[in-house]
Design goal:
Length: 400
């Protein structure tokens, strides 16, 4: 696949025949056409997969629900998937519980909340303006969209609205829309705001139907976003394949972040019909951290999308997974306090990641499973007292 694109010297496999050989030769990995699927596509096109004795076959999916269903059925071996979707599957939120595994984080940052130009024309440019506008209307007058009920975009949107005192469940109406359909739905007036990954926020600006009101990294700098997810039984049945897959994708992530030139080339590749099927110009700016919000503000973002950052991005931090559990509690998706640590420990496969990182070489694994972050409302997340954190929010879903 794409032999002309191969990085020189990669075609020699690091695995000899024997106990380390991957159990599967071909690995089917689903993806949604978003910028943050990049490590999977680059791993397949640049030959990083072959280096570890597998052939990665990326398969484009239409929605996160389709990714979920194909993962559960076994039609996919693994997938580019929303962090919260995987945790929701494990816990049986709106579905039958399924034992899942997070092999690595694919990226941090790089999502955004878009508001319509109709709101901009009314002088609404931020969450505070929204709060004032909504206060004078009947509940549910304004509709907002995210991409999956337990997904990252839902959590960023809820958090951003709540930071301004807007209850995302009672003050506004929420709907689920697949990423590629966001811009079209805003164009025809189905919602006034949405949260999604790129390139759809940049596309809304280009089409002059919306502007970026907030980036996801403004809500949580260096937040976890998409992960490489699979079923727990798949990992148990194919441990060598899982390690090879993570090694290949980890090397691809390192290649993308190695230079501006590599990021530009990645944008060129992703724009092609087989992958995102969009214009390169919608991808390159925000891949490089060059932001224009479509409302007169331009900046170089210090927390733009990143894929590697000395492997800190990809490590499956337990605290990252636990944060989504705290938000499930906050918004009533979990009625009782879960065993935060135990759930994160069984889903986030740091064992597979460490073996893969050792195979790649030159990587020093983090010494801890938790990391500390400060979010837009000033709350500090450490992972050390998750239930207290979940209960610390003034604004939450009734009954949560």
């Amino acid at each position: 696949m794409g032999g002309a694109l191969l990085v020189p010297g990669l075609m020699q496999s690091v695995w000899a025949a024997g106990s380390d050989k991957p159990e599967l030769e071909t690995v089917r990995v689903g993806f949604i056409p978003l910028t943050d699927c990049a490590p999977l596509i680059i791993a397949a096109l640049k030959g990083f997969d072959k280096k570890y004795g597998i052939t990665l076959v990326p398969t484009k999916e239409a929605s996160w629900a389709a990714v979920r269903d194909k993962l559960v059925s076994g039609e996919l071996d693994a997938a580019h998937v929303l962090y919260g979707l995987l945790y929701g599957l494990e816990l049986g939120i709106a579905s039958k519980p399924q034992p899942m595994a997070n092999l690595m984080t694919l990226n941090q940052n790089g999502q955004a909340i878009t508001l319509s130009t109709a709101l901009q024309e009314k002088g609404i440019t931020d969450a505070g303006g929204l709060k004032n506008m909504i206060a004078g209307q009947a509940p549910g007058t304004y509709t907002f969209a995210h991409t999956f009920p337990t997904g990252t975009h839902a959590m960023w949107l809820y958090y951003w609205l709540a930071s301004a005192g807007i209850n995302p469940f009672s003050d506004v109406r929420m709907v689920v829309v697949p990423p590629p359909q966001m811009v079209m739905n805003m164009r025809i007036g189905n919602m006034v705001g949405f949260c999604v990954g790129e390139p759809w926020n940049a596309r809304a600006i280009n089409d002059r139907i919306g502007f970026t009101a907030a980036t996801s990294q403004a809500i949580w700098p260096d937040h976890p976003e998409k992960i490489l997810g699979t079923r727990r039984d798949w990992v148990e049945q194919h441990p060598n394949t899982a390690r090879a897959l993570v090694s290949a994708v980890l090397e691809a992530a390192r290649w993308i972040d190695a230079s501006v030139e590599n990021r530009r080339e990645t944008a060129q590749i992703l724009a092609r019909r087989a992958w995102l099927n969009t214009k390169e110009q919608y991808l390159t700016g925000r891949m490089l951290g060059e932001y224009d919000n479509g409302a007169g503000h331009r900046w170089q973002d210090a927390h733009a999308i990143r894929f590697y950052h000395d492997a800190e991005v990809s490590f499956p931090w337990h605290s990252d997974g636990m944060w989504f559990l705290t938000q499930f509690r906050r918004w009533g998706l979990l009625k009782d306090a879960p065993d935060y640590n135990a759930i994160a420990a069984r889903i986030n496969r740091t064992d597979i990641w460490r073996d893969a990182a050792a195979a790649v070489g030159g990587i020093t694994p983090p010494s801890q499973l938790l990391r500390t972050s400060t979010l837009i409302d000033g709350s500090v997340w450490t992972g050390r007292d998750p239930e207290r954190y979940a209960n610390s929010f003034t604004l939450h879903h009734q009954g949560a």
